[in-house]
């Protein structure tokens, strides 16, 4: 029974599939003839640097490790290493009539949004403040904003 309504493209696809099957069986027969199907030929080793090699590791370089020393999972965080969430920054802009402004962090120089609802004390431009950063709708937002110093001292000009 003939294949009805076979297009040229369908014939080409069928020919390519048959060609791949034939190549695969030829490779399989070639491997059988050479005799390289032993398990030892398929083993790969990883050296001390993480590189895959065909040679087994040197038994003289073997290091014994106690099972109790192996930690599985995430190690507990040291509470003494936790960063202080309170940041220090300078109020670069504050519009008291609209109730928002921006604080520039003294360490990272990152601009942080501040809203009047998150203020513990009233602030104005050039005040040095302490605050905490949370993720806001459009980026970092300052909360618990408290006055540290009334105004930043003027920077001395380089001579």
Write the layout of secondary structure elements.
Elements: H1 8-34, H2 39-42, E1 45-46, E2 52-53, E3 86-95, E4 100-105, E5 111-115, E6 128-135, E7 140-149
Parallel strand pairs: 5-7
Antiparallel strand pairs: 1-2, 3-4, 3-6, 4-5, 6-7
Structure characterization notes:
This protein has 159 residues and is α+β, with helices and mostly antiparallel strands. It has two domains: 56 residues, no CATH class; 64 residues, Nucleic acid-binding proteins (OB fold (Dihydrolipoamide Acetyltransferase, E2P)), CATH 2.40.50.140. Helix content is 19%, strand content 27%. It is built from two helices and seven strands; from the N terminus they run ααβββββββ. A hairpin with a 5-residue loop joins strand 4 and strand 5. The model has no long low-confidence stretch (mean pLDDT 84).
Helix content: 10-25%
Structural class of the helices, strands and pairings?
alpha+beta
The number of E-state strands comes to: 7
Oligomer: single chain
* Strand order, sheet with most strands: 3-4-5-7-6
**In the CATH hierarchy, what is the class of the largest domain?**
Mainly Beta
- The number of helical elements comes to 2
Low-confidence stretches: none
Largest sheet: 5 strands, mixed, barrel
Q: Radius of gyration, rounded?
A: 35 Å
Classify the fold: give the CATH topology of the largest domain.
Answer: OB fold (Dihydrolipoamide Acetyltransferase, E2P)
Q: Overall pLDDT, averaged?
A: 84
**Looking at the structure, what is the overall shape?**
elongated
Give, in order, the helices and strands.
HHEEEEEEE
- Label the CATH architecture of the largest domain: Beta Barrel
Termini distance? 98 Å
